[in-house]
Description:
The chain is an alpha+beta fold. It is about 20% helix and about 45% strand. It has two domains: about 1-115 and about 250-260, Diaminopimelate Epimerase, Chain A, domain 1, CATH 3.10.310; about 120-240, Roll (Diaminopimelate Epimerase, Chain A, domain 1). It has helices at about 30-40, 70-85, 130-135, 155-160, 165-170, 210-220; strands at about 1-10, 20-25, 45-55, 55-60, 65-70, 90-95, 100-110, 110-115, 120-125, 140-145, 145-150, 175-180, 185-195, 200, 225-230, 235-240, 245-250, 250-260.
Amino acid sequence: MIIQIYQVDAFSDRLFSGNPAAVCPLDFWLSDDILQNIAAENNLSETAFIKKKDGVFEIRWFTPLAEVELCGHATLAAAHVLFNHLKFKGNHLIFESVYSGKLEVFKKGEYLILDFPVDHLEPALPPDHLVHSMGSKPLEIWKGRTDYLLFYPSQEDIEEIKPDFSFLKGIEARGIIVTAPGYDCDFVSRFFAPYLGINEDPVTGSAHTSLVPFWAHRLNQLEFEARQLSARGGFLKCKLTGERVLISGNACTYMTGSITLT
């Protein structure tokens, strides 16, 4: 069996930045074990698998260690592949996901716009070792559906965080978001997910379903420019629209190829 594979740098308009994701279009669903093994072999933060069904596309996302409920950059990458390599006609895609429902993607000029559900945050007590793992104490700690969000006073605080991953990987959460006001944008962030085998994710679209409502309340605005301060870096435009978040970014193809399953 031959499976096409595309590697795309998402949330960037140039190669070697943003967040790389693999995209594998399928004619039928393979077993979970095979999907997980492909994701582990790819060794990227996410591999997206897509399959056409009745005019929409089913989508699933896998890290090297586990399937996840939602992934922004791999969805952006999947839309990029459909529009640019698989010649999908039109400017509107619908993905169906098991855990996050219907996800729409719109093409507008150079940007792809993800339409994702809002994540609702609640104040939270830190689990054991969380603050110690970060090396500095946040001003506030919040918890969403799958992630913790830690609020710090300045961009320097975010830049200087050096997590102790030996402790952080023991915290049972999809990820840890750290955020602060930005200098040349509305807010900055970083995202750590060692529990799922990703020490630091370069650009995390789905984290902005938490970040955007958090900053909307704090800044009293609905539209944002945001930067994720990983080594590769990424830029996102976001907008809060009721119970949805619009997350916009660029993408570019790094590699195309094929997987041989024997």
